Amino acid sequence: MRGDQLARQWRILRHIEASHNGLSVRDIMDLENTSRRTVYRDLEALQAAGFPLFTEKIEGQTKWAFIDDYKFRVPQPFTTTELMSLYLYGDFIKVFKDTWYYDALESLFKKVRATLPRETLAYLDNIQSAFSVGIRPFKEYGKYREILNQLSKVLPKRERVEMIYQSLRSPKESLRKVDPYALRFLDGTIYLIGFCHLRGEVRTFVVDRIKMLKVTGAVFDLPKDFSLEEYTSRSFKVMQDELHTVKVRISPEWSRWVGEKIWHESQRMEKLPDGGLEMTFDVAGLDEIKQWILSLGPEAQVLEPTELQEMIVQSLEQTLQAYQHAYNQKRAME
Predict the structure, then answer these.
(1) Which of 215, 233, 251 lies at the terminal end of a domain, its last residue?
(2) Using one digit for the tens of pLDDT, what is the confidence trace for 54-112?
(3) How many angstroms separate the CA atoms of 239 and 246, rounded?
(4) Cβ(196)–Cβ(202) under 8 Å?
(5) What is the distance between the alpha carbons of residues 98 and 180, in angstroms, rounded to a whole number?
(6) What three-state secondary structure class fits 206?
(7) Strand ranges inside 26-113, DSSP E
(8) Per the confidence metrics, is the pTM higher than 0.70?
(9) Using CA atoms, how far apart are residues 189 and 185, in angstroms rounded to an integer?
(10) Where does the WCX domain lie (predicted)?
């Protein structure tokens, strides 16, 4: 109940902030579909939390609004609730601890704390106790602080870099000359997207596999036809490869859980007579969606393409062999 109450009070603040002439209790009751008593209780709680709300008569109605001259000044162009939202976003930056990004954002959050009154901060702490953000798994990017710092400087300047890189599939390191286009954070990992002169195409690099980075000072032009959104739209996660249409059958037992989420922007779903789901994706490459399907175990079955079916079978056979080998070794030692 506490979380519902805080969420409703937050929405009431947003409603009042968005109104031009304030809102009556009846207006808020209609917007929130709640009782008069609840609205009054919420407004009293918000005033006690330090929000500069007041009432005035407008055309015979009592309206609630923010005081024009706030008792705490909100830096322009932020509104009060925007500033509060920014403060609550603090959980998201923990993944960047010990990096330049974290230092800059932490400094910003300290300024937010200095701007908001003590009562409002106590109110926000109540919200944070009812709402938390968990980002797992993630990597400790503090050890890559200098590389991230260099990339953050060269990206807006469009400066070429040279780097020693070790890909996931190769034990050998290679020297790459790269035009960095953008950084992308996904599933706890930071990726660099840029034109690789060694491969002659746009590639995606895992930042923590960059062993050394050097700024060359050479400037490049970002291709006018390059779109980061378009480049990443076909990837199931980050992989870029041949485009495939993938069809997967989800069991009736798991259809609701799987069907409630957007796994890829291309996904299409069809309900089956037995309660299961048939999901269709258009994705670049098969390795990443293969890992997703394997994570669902027997609740997911690949219908097509055949190539992906064979990849799944091979992975399952290798897993079974590994477990069987470990099991046999254990039995032999008993």
Answers:
(1) 233
(2) 888 877 889 998 876 544 455 555 666 776 777 666 767 777 777 767 777 777 777 77
(3) 15
(4) yes
(5) 23
(6) strand
(7) 53-58, 61-66
(8) no
(9) 6
(10) 243-319
